[in-house]
Amino acid sequence: MAAAESCSSTNDGGGFDEVLQELGFLDSNSTHENGNGTTSPATLSALAVLQQLLATQTVSPNHVRRAVLQIHNKSKKNSKLTEANKSNEPTTRAAAAAATTAEDKSKTNPPTQNISNSNNNSTTINNNDNNQPRRRHIALHIHYDGGPYSGLAENVGRPDDRSIERALFAALEQTNLLAGYSRSQAQYSRCGRTDKGVSAAGQVVALQLKSAFSPRASWDAAGNQIVADTELPNHSSQRLTVYCPPRSKPTTNKKKKQQKQPAQSTTTNNQQDATTTANTTTPPTRIRRDMTELPYDKILNNVLPPEIRVLGWCPVSAEFSARFSATTRTYRYFFSNLQLNLHQMQAALARLVGEHDFRNFCKMDVEHVYNFCRTVHYARIYVLDDDGSAVLFDDGGEENPQPFDLDRARVCYFEIHGQAFLWHQIRCIVSIMFLVGRGLEEPSIVTDLLDTSKYPGKPAYELANEIPLVLHHCGFPNLQIGYSVSNLWNVSCHFEKQKQDLLLAAARIQNGMNRLQEDAVVNMDDLKEFCKSRLLERQKKAQKYGGGTDHATFQDRLDQVQKISFGDSASIPWKQALDWMNTTLNFVPDPAGVK
Fold first, then answer.
1. How confident is the model at residue 24 (pLDDT cuts 50, 70, 90)?
2. What's the whole-model pTM score?
3. Catalytic residue at 556?
4. What's the CA gap between 512 and 522, in Å, rounded?
């Protein structure tokens, strides 16, 4: 707050001189540069303060860039006012000719200023901004299937990189939406860094993109009321009527030859021509245009790979960061409910809610993360109906159990909502949930793992598969993404095609399973040996986690396997074998059994 008050106390920076003098960085006789061109000790001290502010993230590199740009624009504005005052004074023909020559020279070689960004790359700013496009800070809502990609983040410098960001920036360069900006110059930021194979339905990224509106677009024909960035459209369907200067035409070869020919007239004639030009030249007539903003979503979708779609966009402030401005993130993990106890998993999920130390539920990254405390707002299980609608699985809890039709729970998903998450945190949580759902752990294991005094080191357990994980939603205060009907229609048709392709693929797989059950026949002795090995494997795995059935029950099931009989035949159909294993031993083919 103190910094904000000091910034608003004065517009010319004079209030800061008193602070610098008080701290010993500046005195009334000090100068910023010595006579030999070297920097004074006072300036070095001020530079050290700025470096410390950047290192402690008290200010961001973007704040520094914007401050330098504001000072630069203010200086340019003052120089224009000075030139305007001079033009109102009476001048001789020679002075007018000299002024015209100096103006032509400044247009040919406009002054530039270099500003260093956070990556030590140099950004060149041209003081003559008339030919520069207007840029806007835009947030993009992106959906992508992460299966074919190495993750969201680009591995810069690796030619074999296959990341979402590499495909995105390739599309941005192909469509010229960056307008010559590099990734760092565009102030790129992302909300959630998804790993290899992880998908997203609500990813948000932000960066500077070229606008359809000229920086000299105005509300009036005289060009006095320039359209501000905050007055530009918030979506592609919003129209504005503005006045724009005509586009400059490229110089023809004939004009270039004329410019190269030496002057034949005398000095007096040149001075007269310069005076005549200065008195008769008038600003070009502005053109009235009914304009909309560039459809960033549609433009990018035309060149992006089919797995990546831009759903919508909206303008954001210069201070907006897709990472640090986000207040919540929601993940979903889809799974097929085969022999999983949803009641036990729901009881285990409830123990995650609140602020806890999740170091036993993540992949440790001690080089970059030292605080493993995170807050989970809620963790739930949803069941998908045949029509695709989701129903909250609510069994009333341990104190008030309610009946739930588990036959409808064929496909489910976990939904975990929090402020931020650690590396692999969701997949680690899902791994523990599956152990609980299979009866290998009790729901109390969650409480035990959250107690770092009881488990100071993360125990070894398998990491859940990354493919079913989706970054479902990123929450921002006051962020209203704009969507166009045309783009949403195209995206919906694209999704429907993908869905139909996958449904047909599932039907082909089901056809193969049915063919096995109809035609395949297995040997009885082979079936017995398989069932014995599966029972032994299940018992050994359960004992490893401190569970398992008692010896009498285990021996009883072995006896059932030994006594299996289907008449005098030495073989049975595969469908009949599957039914017997399901009803007698609770064996069902599931993805976890793939070897």
1. low
2. 0.70
3. no
4. 17
